[in-house]
Design goal:
Blueprint lengths: L1 H13 L5 E4 L4 H7 L4 E4 L7 H18 L5 E3 L12 E4 L4 H4 L6 H17 L2 E4 L2 H11 L6 E3 L14 H10 L7 E5 L8 H12 L7 E5 L5 H8 L7 E5 L6 H6 L3 E4 L8 H8 L4 E4 L4 H5 L4 E3 L3 H12 L2 H15 L4 H16 L1
Parallel strand pairs: 1-2, 3-4, 4-5, 5-6, 7-8, 7-10, 8-9, 10-11, 11-12
Length: 355
């Protein structure tokens, strides 16, 4: 979500939008740098936790928006003020709270289902990051399709690019790999990302290789099922969980991987998939929800079960020519997704909300 907001805010500013950014006090300086022409208004100091923010969102945010002379409010993450007195646009990032409830905690799923229903009923416009998410929103909640706008995410080529050998080597060295090939995953280690199946499929794919690559699971929020799957990994097969990586290391990490694997069971868009493509990584993903919209013909696909992932990984690991072709295709396709185009789609949605 942070990369979505950062990319969008910077692109809206470059597009000349009359932009007011309301944010946490700790983020004010960062948004001032991202959007030099925007007015950045920090919220009160006490809204650092979700409960306080949601309460303030109902009264404080609309007041601040009216004082700033705003014509429309855009809340980029599911929830919205109910009596703002202004047209309100809400971004709904995915519908897996309804379609894959077992992949989320009960408390989290309940909150986001409620927020999504409210947005569908009350927002002037709903922005979604893919046609698949739009279609699911219509199917699951009978949402009005005439009030839903699709705005794909973009990728910043300054942040995500094919790395130099030095960048790739530096990222690998920081992980303690020192030249060992690896399969990369980037994202939260949460149930819908299907990490246990990735781990088990990876083990099946590499355990009989003389010099197997490592599997690196970069990201936070550990899941108990992931711990179980890691505990089953045999000796001689290496699985690393380094936690969060710095932005500076991401091009080297993704672009330096022999394969980037994202066997998710459902995504609203799949930004890490796009970012891996922009870094020149050969990508393996699933046919689920929006992922084919992002990957097109530039990635390899698998079913989300252990055996299929093992087969997909083994095919790529043993075929340098296929990996090279996917790398080139992914780089080309990633150029089609820009934050400038996303900003244009958002501006059109704002205009529709005002009208």
């Amino acid at each position: 979500m942070i990369r979505y907001v950062d990319g969008l805010v910077a692109a809206l500013d470059k597009a000349g939008a009359d932009l007011v950014v309301v944010c946490q006090r700790a983020d004010a300086q960062r948004y001032a740098a991202l959007a030099p022409a925007a007015r950045v208004l920090p919220g009160p100091a006490g809204i650092t936790n979700r409960a306080a923010r949601l309460t303030w969102e109902q009264t404080g945010l609309p007041l601040l928006a009216r004082q700033a002379g705003a014509q429309v409010i855009h809340v980029p993450y599911y929830s919205m003020p109910l009596r703002s007195g202004l047209p309100t646009v809400v971004t709904v990032h995915d519908v897996t709270w309804f379609t894959e409830p077992s992949q989320h905690s009960a408390v989290k799923a309940s909150f986001f289902r409620s927020a999504t229903r409210t947005a569908v009923r009350h927002a002037s416009r709903v922005i979604v990051p893919s046609k698949a998410t739009r279609d699911e929103l219509i199917r699951v909640l009978t949402a009005d399709p005439t009030r839903i706008d699709v705005a794909y995410h973009g990728v910043d080529p300054a942040l995500f690019h094919r790395p130099s050998e030095r960048e790739a080597g530096h990222a690998a060295d920081r992980l303690g790999l020192h030249g060992t090939p690896y399969v990369a995953f980037l994202g939260p280690l949460e149930p819908r990302k299907n990490i246990p199946s990735l781990i088990r499929g990876f083990v099946r794919a590499v355990q009989d290789l003389p010099d197997p690559p490592a599997l690196v699971l970069a990201g936070g929020v550990r899941d108990a099922d992931v711990d179980v799957a890691v505990g089953e990994v045999p000796s001689g097969v290496k699985v690393l969980r380094p936690g969060y990586l710095s932005f500076a290391d991401l091009p080297g990490f993704l672009g330096g991987a022999v394969v980037a694997a994202f066997p998710s069971r459902g995504e609203g868009f799949g930004l890490p998939l796009l970012e891996a493509m922009a870094c020149g990584a050969p990508v393996l993903t699933t046919h689920s929800t929006s992922l084919p919209e992002v990957g097109g013909d530039a990635v390899a696909y698998t079913e989300p079960d252990d055996a299929a992932i093992a087969e997909g990984l083994r095919t790529l690991l043993t075929s340098p020519e296929r990996r090279e072709a996917l790398s080139a295709a992914g780089l080309a396709r990633a150029k089609e997704f820009t934050w400038e185009a996303s900003a244009d789609a958002h501006l059109l949605s704002y205009q529709r909300a005002v009208e």
